[in-house]
Design a protein that fits this description.
heterodimer; A: mainly alpha; 2 helices; rod-shaped; B: mainly alpha; 71% helix
Chain lengths: 72, 242
Amino acid sequence: MSLVFGVAPALPLHTAGKYVAAAYIVFLALVLVYVAIMATRLSRTERDLAELQRDVALRREEEADRDREPVA
Amino acid sequence: MSIYGRGLRGLALTTVATITVAFTLVFFYAPLDADQGFVQKIFYVHVPLAITALCGFVFGGVLGAMYLRTGERKWDIRSYVAIHMALIFGVGTLITGAIWAKASWGHWWIWSDPTLTSFLIVMLLFATYQPLRFSIEDPERQARYASVFAVVAGAFVPLNFIAVRAAQAYVHPRVLTLAGGNLPGSMRLTFLVSLIGIALLYSTLWKYEMAAKSTRMRVRALRRTLLGDDAVAPLKRSAAPL
């Protein structure tokens, strides 16, 4: 393996720059993709919550209607 | 607000500030490495990602042990999220490592290097965690088996690390040791800030995902309380606790 080091001197800045940029872009991309996935899940939770609020309101209306109906 | 959401904003802001400071130090303060030059800057993102990922796997094992001890579902969910996050950080480690290897050694991967190969083995081991969960339908059994796996695999991580450290034939340079290593002061400071930044990122994302899962569970419980069991759709077969 020392041969690998032997043939791998420090890269000049213009060559090394793209590798360094790639590594940091990978890091940022991972974080961004994760945040995007979590944002999608959050919107699903918000949708579920809105649906729940609608269902509860509907049920309350039905109960109120039942209470208003005259007892035979 | 759930316990996971509490303090999340402060933690997120601290994480962003620390990572900003870390990257500023990387590019404007830390000197160029005498051997590798500018390419060595990858060290400040690659090594903290690797350390955080490995600690995340161990953390997942500890949380799994807590589940086995208490039987409380929250520990299984915490363990699942810890391992899930560590896997993401592990993928980052592998990709940034391959880029660094290509730049430094001229190869994307060197199979004969114990550090690289052992990290891949740990990753592959933990990559089976999700399929294991997915293969078990009963939530209780899923949690129990997954926790046992998390404990055993989590214990494997430090053993694997020690074995690699003890190996003699390696190409990975050893810059971090208990005796202080051979990083100059400015590089060590930059590395430590980067490590703290990445560890904070892990904590933030863990809390974020736990808060999201906790909120979804509360919405589900609320629906069941208000509208009855029939109003709650059965959980689909999934590796995730929710």
